[in-house]
Amino acid sequence: MTTESTSVNPSPGPWPVAGQFSGRASLASASASPRTASDRLALPVRRPLRERYAAVPLVAADVLAVLLAVGVLSAAHRRWELALPVVLLVVALDARAGLHRPAALPAGVLDEVPALAARAGIAWCVTAAAVAAYAPALVIGPLRLCAAYAVQVTAVFVVRGLVLARRRRTARTHPRSALVVGAAGPARRFAAALAQHPEYGVRPVGIVAPRADGEPGLPVLTTAEEVHRAVIQNTVRDAVLLSSDAGSDAGSGEGSEDGLVALFQQHGCATWRVGGEQAGGPMGDHLWGFGCRRLVPLGERRGLTAKRALDVALAGPALALALPVLMACALAVRIADGPGVLFRQERVGQNGRLFTLLKFRTLKPADETESATQWSIANDRRMSPAGHFLRKTSLDELPQLWNVLRGDMSLVGPRPERPYFVAQFSRIHAGYAARHRMPVGLTGLAQVHGLRGDTSIEDRCRFDNHYIDHWSLWQDVCILLRTAAGLVRPTGS
């Protein structure tokens, strides 16, 4: 635990109304975490399992198609050594193109055929070239190569078609609750069109607009608190943002879109842009003639899969190499402070999800209330010399490598905090809750700039959001290198 100061700033005030998202202050306020009357942290809605694992059947279709394609090759080529690179390439290319993401609406496979065929062709050509270069005896002839390619494209077309057909049936019988964002009049007309066409699988339950129009029908939500209640009560899964050419005069700017997307994604909602030049996609991606495009969360848009791969690739070996150090630290804590070597504490992770963080215990709190709601002091007299050393060298954080492997955390990201303080800081510091747009981390941009220990929460919040807004895999590598260099001259807390 680090000692932190909370510079007393005036409260950012109530949440902005839905139409006030054009300025920076409004965007920051829109990203704040919703709070209940008791000021406790209100966590976003969690998606059902079938939505969180929607990509699994489509990935399975890719794998099955490749295995069937390998089956048409000669006996010498029917080996997993050949199938494996094709599977990896196909899955990676399709994932990169977004072919495993949920569609804006129940989609047909015909629109996906060009993209699937092109990526299958690339995978087979690359694999065939590699085999010819490194194993000439197993070179794949052009006829067999074309046959394998044709079988794969046909198989993936059939299997994906079955998967998507089942999803269309499910969407029609069990539509997803949605909020329509825009001026009240156009939003009502758009919602009425969706209600008359259940084949799109979207059921509007409310309208988010700058001001109410007094018309009967769907309720008009004008504040973020009303949006929060509507999401919880109606199990809202989607937010549809109308562009100006769709008849809406609200929220058409880029800053406006970013603020609204952040607000809805913090509630666990998928967000869609309807209408506008940037809403174009495949011809099938439309809602009653309006072009529809999914607004992908920032972290997902920029490759959280690669970030997770880096975490696993580095955290696993690091945990193995650090085993002697971990054992030495555990022994020191056991001798100095008695039983209870590990300290477990509930923290807030990505999208408000709670997890149990692990640390080496450096002192024993008086009770659970102190642990959950009080800062630990850097030079607490209850801290033994062993605990003080672990804090100063940051060795007490090493068990969090296990949190990284489990997927609770990343190696790099905003530092996680306890629910009590997340609720407090979200009220005091505009934009604090927006730190949870990406996985929390073992180290971060704020930490390598010296913002740990008794430093400003406002400064940390600013650095964390800057890191998220400009994330790249190379930036993670640079932060890890700077953190490693900092361990040579530890300051701790």
Question: Could you explain the architecture of this structure?
Answer:
- The chain is an alpha/beta fold and 493 residues long.
- The chain folds into three domains: 130 residues, NAD(P)-binding Rossmann-like Domain (Rossmann fold); 121 residues, no CATH class; 185 residues, no CATH class.
- The longest helix is centred in the first third of the chain and has 32 residues.
- The radius of gyration is 26 Å and the shape is flat.
- The N terminus is likely disordered.
Mind sketching the topology for me?
Elements: H1 24-30, H2 49-52, H3 55-70, H4 80-96, H5 113-134, H6 142-173, E1 176-181, H7 184-195, E2 202-208, E3 220-221, H8 224-234, E4 238-242, H9 254-265, E5 270-274, E6 286-287, E7 290-294, H10 298-301, H11 304-321, H12 323-337, E8 342-348, E9 354-360, H13 368-373, H14 385-393, H15 400-406, E10 410-412, H16 419-428, E11 441-443, H17 445-448, H18 457-469, H19 473-488
Parallel strand pairs: 1-2, 1-4, 2-3, 4-5, 10-11
Antiparallel strand pairs: 5-7, 6-7, 8-9
Can you summarize this structure?
The protein is of the alpha/beta class and 493 residues long. It has helices at 24-30, 49-52, 55-70, 80-96, 113-134, 142-173, 184-195, 224-234, 254-265, 298-301, 304-321, 323-337, 368-373, 385-393, 400-406, 419-428, 445-448, 457-469, 473-488, and strands at residues 176-181, 202-208, 220-221, 238-242, 270-274, 286-287, 290-294, 342-348, 354-360, 410-412, 441-443. The longest helix has 32 residues, at 142-173.
